């Protein structure tokens, strides 16, 4: 029976590619790649000669019907993104949903994704957390910040390097400058950096050193204040 494989690829260090991922990419009939030029370098490195087809946010609505037809006809297809696990702030959700709706089997391989190591090495509570991905650029941003300001769980965001300073400055009126955060940059790569501290401390750091590369921001949740215990005796007593 045909199947759609969701295959994570390294977020930086090529040694994070799994043996299983390499085998699947060699065995499938077609690989869907976010950017065939970027993925072409990865496939060449691992000597994978499977044909690639471009599948990205600008064409995924148009290609799904054809891909479902190919899967139903018996082809096995793998979906990869430029880095990390597809469908996590990358194309993949629409095709996965279409497969589920059409009775096509979907299998997601475990593998690299940026937010997990960023959360774990942040030193912030990770028993409960929420993944926000990229915040809205304009419309809806304030509404989202107001909701996040009341969030007690640890929050994970993806931020472009050229927007990091502005984003950290925006944190102050909503989270306060003393809220604990962690900024992870270039995870798994040669120049990996993890900067931890208050919003103000981390903002001061990146004002001196321009941020570069892929960035994950982890924000501590709103502290839970415990209400004082009420006396068992009433004032009249």
TrEMBL record:
<protein>
    <recommendedName>
        <fullName>Ribosomal RNA small subunit methyltransferase I</fullName>
        <ecNumber>2.1.1.198</ecNumber>
    </recommendedName>
</protein>
<dbReference type="InterPro" id="IPR008189">
    <property type="entry name" value="rRNA_ssu_MeTfrase_I"/>
</dbReference>
<keyword id="KW-0963">Cytoplasm</keyword>
<dbReference type="Pfam" id="PF00590">
    <property type="entry name" value="TP_methylase"/>
</dbReference>
<keyword id="KW-0698">rRNA processing</keyword>
<comment type="similarity">
    <text>Belongs to the methyltransferase superfamily. RsmI family.</text>
</comment>
<dbReference type="InterPro" id="IPR014777">
    <property type="entry name" value="4pyrrole_Mease_sub1"/>
</dbReference>
<dbReference type="InterPro" id="IPR014776">
    <property type="entry name" value="4pyrrole_Mease_sub2"/>
</dbReference>
<feature type="domain" description="Tetrapyrrole methylase">
    <location>
        <begin position="3"/>
        <end position="202"/>
    </location>
</feature>
<keyword id="KW-0489">Methyltransferase</keyword>
<dbReference type="GO" id="GO:0005737">
    <property type="term" value="C:cytoplasm"/>
</dbReference>
<comment type="function">
    <text>Catalyzes the 2'-O-methylation of the ribose of cytidine 1402 (C1402) in 16S rRNA.</text>
</comment>
<keyword id="KW-0949">S-adenosyl-L-methionine</keyword>
<dbReference type="InterPro" id="IPR035996">
    <property type="entry name" value="4pyrrol_Methylase_sf"/>
</dbReference>
<keyword id="KW-0808">Transferase</keyword>
<dbReference type="InterPro" id="IPR000878">
    <property type="entry name" value="4pyrrol_Mease"/>
</dbReference>
<dbReference type="InterPro" id="IPR018063">
    <property type="entry name" value="SAM_MeTrfase_RsmI_CS"/>
</dbReference>
<dbReference type="GO" id="GO:0070677">
    <property type="term" value="F:rRNA (cytosine-2'-O-)-methyltransferase activity"/>
</dbReference>
